């Protein structure tokens, strides 16, 4: 069965998880800041729930990293852009 999650999307999510953990931000804190249950963040990180672009930007803001930096670290845009 073909995955509905692309390799690029997987890299973005893994980069978000790494950014969250490196800043010592718990899923519960992210969820609380977004006004969502912890399961919302868990499902995103386990790739059970797909993010839209607005949710992606909101997550980046809460974690404390720029969306551009996540995209660069995930290898989706060049570092000089």
Task: Describe this entry's structure for a reader.
By secondary structure, this protein is an all-alpha fold. It has helices at residues 7-22, 27-34, 38-45, 53-63, 67-73. α2 crosses α3.
> What is the radius of gyration computed over CA atoms, rounded to a whole number of angstroms?
12 Å
**Low-confidence runs of at least 5 consecutive residues:** none
* Helicity range: 55-70%
Number of strands: 0
Question: Proportion of β residues?
Answer: under 5%
Give the termini distance in whole angstroms.
36 Å
Order of helices and strands: HHHHH
Give the helix tally.
5
Task: Please outline the major beta sheet.
Answer: none
Quick one: overall form?
globular
The average pLDDT score comes to 93
Would you tell me the structural class of the helices and strands? mainly alpha
Provide a short characterization of the protein structure.
This protein is an all-alpha fold.
Break the fold down into its secondary structure elements and pairings:
Blueprint: H1 7-22, H2 27-34, H3 38-45, H4 53-63, H5 67-73
Helix pairs in contact: 2-3
Keywords:
81 residues, mainly alpha
């Amino acid at each position: 069965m073909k995955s509905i999650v692309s390799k690029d999307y997987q890299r973005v999510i893994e980069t978000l998880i790494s950014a969250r953990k490196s800043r010592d931000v718990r899923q519960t804190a992210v969820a609380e800041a977004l006004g969502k249950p912890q399961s919302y963040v868990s499902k995103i990180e386990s790739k059970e729930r797909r993010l839209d672009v607005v949710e992606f930007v909101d997550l980046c803001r809460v974690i404390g990293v720029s969306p551009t930096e996540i995209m660069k670290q995930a290898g989706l845009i060049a570092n000089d852009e």
